[in-house]
Each structure stands twice: as structure tokens, then as C-alpha cells.
Write a structure and sequence with these properties.
The complex is a heterodimer of chains A (about 200) and B (about 170).
Chain A (H helix, E strand, L loop, with lengths): L1 H16 L5 H19 L2 H29 L11 H17 L3 E4 L7 E6 L28 H13 L2 E9 L8 E10 L12
Antiparallel strand pairs in A: 1-2, 2-4, 3-4
Chain B lengths: L2 E7 L5 E6 L12 H25 L10 E3 L4 E6 L5 E6 L12 H25 L9 E2 L10 E2 L5 H10 L6
Parallel strand pairs in B: 6-7
Antiparallel strand pairs in B: 1-2, 1-5, 3-4, 4-5
The chains are: A alpha+beta (about 200), B alpha+beta (about 170).
């Protein structure tokens, strides 16, 4: 599809313009953040929730930067995404490419076109990372930790700013032995553009 | 061509930033805050309603976007992002572009470009990237009594905005 390759090219061009950081620094910083969270909260489910919240804050900021860069570069974002499929393409091909420099694929669209998956071959956050084996003495089960849950929060936060309420989950994770990372995104509802509390009728 | 005022609204209608550039402002007593805030709500309401209208009037396939609203007294130029941020610039009506042969389209696009530039270079760079920024929690007038809310004055957005607008040929 021409829009697919357009998005991919646009993503490539945007990535070229972004300032770069050291990938190892990035991965290690994230790793120490997760380690601290695990130490503080001890329950992997709680850590997942915290990572999602952090990701949400990040996503809310990223979306403005993404929209402004893509718009200025004339990458055809002036016409909005017509459906969820376009949105998925833009998020994967342009968003992930622009901020992380990785190639992400979309697929597994559901029948009603409300769910899709994003596949990441390599995950820059999980370089050098190994999850410990199950602890037979019954300590916290770190296999339940979703290490890359930050991505879920980012996608959720970013799409929320464009009126799409979504739920994201990590379905497959290379840290747990799968061959690639899969994030499942489900559209919950399309929010209406309303005026806020200041404008309520008295 | 003078710029009278500049506003930025978020998706919910909260005013994120506002500034008046009027040479007559020294002659006026300080206007009541309520009055100014009412005016801003009216501007937002107008932009919101017009956007709905434009959306329903636009033929299929074209992108609906409100560019400017022109009245006898002045023109309100607006730019809206997909994330719902609305930037509005209120100027008076005489485009003085230095060359009378320019047609109106060029003057309109240069406003759109200017607003786009303000969004991408100034807003994103200064405000969104500031570690204190929290969407939906921005204090405007500086005399609210909640501590800990992000104040745009803690960034150099305003200075950069003034410098940018002053560098525009149509700003006096």
C-alpha cells in the first residue's frame, strides 16, 4: 500500500533529523529505573502499573513533538488518519521510528478493526537485560514483570491526546523467550471533543 | 499591521497562554480579570463552534481547517493541531507586506506558517519539553493560589515568542 511506504519513508526522514542519544545509556538508565521500582514496590504487578503511568506522561508529551515535526516537514499528516489502520501505521512506522529508530510492524487486525498488534523485532530498552529465573523460595515472581510496559503507557498517553482511548498490553516478550515483542492495542472508545468544566451550562 | 493579542487554548478550552500587545494598553486601567477570562472563553467558544461548522461544510476529501476570521476591526488567525491545541493571533486588518502586488493567499499562508512555527519550534521546544509541564494543569494568570501548578512563565516561551513576533515584517 502506498501509505505504508509513505509512512516508512517519512519515519526514516524524521529519525534522521532527531538528535540522537547513546543507546547503551538509554537502556541502562531504563534498567536502573526498573530496578529501583522493583526494589520499592516489590510486587511486579504494581511495578507494571507504575511503568504504564510513567509511559503515559511520556506519551502525552511525545505526541505534540511528533505532530509538530511531522506537520512542519509536510509529511502528509495534514490529512488525518481515516481509520484505525492508518493510525496504527503512523504509530508504528513513524512514531516508533522517529523516537527510537526501530522498525516496527503492524498486523493482526481484528475483525471489527478495533484491535491491532505492533511487532518489535529488537527492543532498545531490553539490551543487556535478563529476567531472573523463578525463585523457588517464593520471592517475588519477576516473570510477571512486563519490562517494556513503558511502551504501553506511551501509546496510551499519545493516543489519548488525539481523542482515542486505547488499552495496550504486552503479549509477547523476547525477555520471556518469545521470538519477538508484541504489543496488543485495543480501541476502547473515540472521545468527543468537548469543552471542559469552564463551559458547563449553569 | 499590528498584532493585538495572542492566545493558546487546549482541547478543553482552558487558556494556556495569553498576551496582549497593544500600544494603547498603558492608557487603559487594568482590566478586570473576570472580564478578560470571559473574553477568552468567548473566543474559544467561537473557534469551537466554527470548527464544527467548517467540518460539516467541507466537501469530502478536503481537510477542514479554520484559518482566519475577519471582521471589520481585525482578523483572528488560528491554527489547530490534531492534539487539540489551538493557537490564535488577533491582528488588525491591513496587510503591509512591502509589496502591494502580493495576493491575499500569500499573506494568509505566511500567518499559517508563522503559527505553525510557533507551535513546533517555540511551544514544543520550550513548554512541552520542560520537566514541569503537565497537560491540563497549567496556570495562566499567575495569581491563582495553588502552588505546584506549572506556570508558563517558568519557561522562556514568552521571551522567545516576543522575539519571534518582533522579527516578523508584519508586527509593529
Amino acid at each position: 500500500m502506498s501509505s505504508k511506504s509513505q509512512a516508512a519513508q517519512a519515519g526514516q526522514a524524521l529519525w534522521a533529523k532527531m538528535p540522537k542519544a547513546n543507546a547503551e545509556l538509554f537502556a541502562l538508565t531504563y534498567g536502573s529505573l526498573v530496578t529501583e521500582l522493583v526494589r520499592d514496590y516489590e510486587d511486579p504487578i504494581e511495578v507494571n502499573a507504575q511503568l504504564d503511568r510513567i509511559g503515559h506522561s511520556i506519551g502525552v508529551r511525545c505526541v505534540d513533538e511528533f505532530l509538530s515535526k511531522a506537520d512542519v516537514a509536510g509529511m502528509g499528516l495534514t490529512t488525518q488518519c481515516q481509520n484505525l489502520r492508518d493510525t496504527a501505521e503512523v504509530v508504528a512506522k513513524m512514531g516508533f521510528k522517529m523516537f527510537l529508530g526501530i522498525q516496527a510492524e503492524v498486523g493482526a487486525f481484528s475483525q471489527d478493526q478495533r484491535c491491532f498488534s505492533i511487532y518489535l523485532q529488537d527492543n532498545p530498552l531490553s539490551t543487556f537485560v535478563e529476567l531472573p529465573e523463578d525463585d523457588p523460595s517464593g520471592g517475588e515472581d519477576l516473570r510477571r514483570l512486563k519490562y517494556s510496559n513503558l511502551y504501553c503507557g506511551v501509546i496510551r498517553g499519545a493516543l489519548e491526546q488525539v481523542n482515542l482511548k486505547v488499552d495496550c498490553n504486552i503479549v509477547r516478550d523476547t525477555l520471556k523467550g518469545d521470538e519477538l515483542n508484541e504489543i496488543r492495542v485495543e480501541l476502547k472508545e473515540v472521545l468527543a471533543d468537548g469543552a471542559g468544566d469552564d463551559y458547563k451550562e449553569e | 499591521m499590528t498584532v493585538h493579542a495572542f492566545h493558546i487554548f487546549d482541547r478543553k478550552g482552558k487558556t494556556l497562554f495569553t498576551k496582549r500587545y497593544s500600544s494603547a494598553v498603558k492608557n487603559q486601567p487594568v482590566q478586570d480579570v473576570e472580564l478578560l477570562s470571559e473574553q477568552r472563553k468567548l473566543i474559544f467558544g467561537m473557534l469551537f463552534s466554527l470548527r464544527e461548522l467548517v467540518g460539516s461544510l467541507t466537501p469530502e476529501g478536503e481537510s477542514p481547517a479554520l484559518q482566519s476570521v475577519k471582521t471589520g476591526a481585525g482578523t483572528l488567525h488560528c491554527y489547530e493541531t490534531i492534539s487539540g491545541l489551538r493557537i490564535a493571533l488577533y491582528t488588525n486588518n491591513n496587510p503591509n507586506m512591502g509589496s502591494t502586488a502580493r495576493n491575499l493567499d500569500t499573506s494568509k499562508t505566511s500567518f499559517q506558517n508563522a503559527l505553525k512555527h510557533i507551535y513546533s519550534e517555540l511551544w514544543v521546544d520550550c513548554v512541552v519539553r520542560s520537566p514541569l509541564y503537565r497537560p491540563g494543569d497549567i496556570q495562566v494568570d499567575g495569581h491563582g493560589n495553588d502552588v505546584g501548578r506549572f506556570d508558563i512563565r517558568s519557561t522562556n516561551f514568552e521571551k522567545k515568542l516576543d522575539a519571534y513576533l518582533a522579527s516578523m515584517p508584519w508586527f509593529r
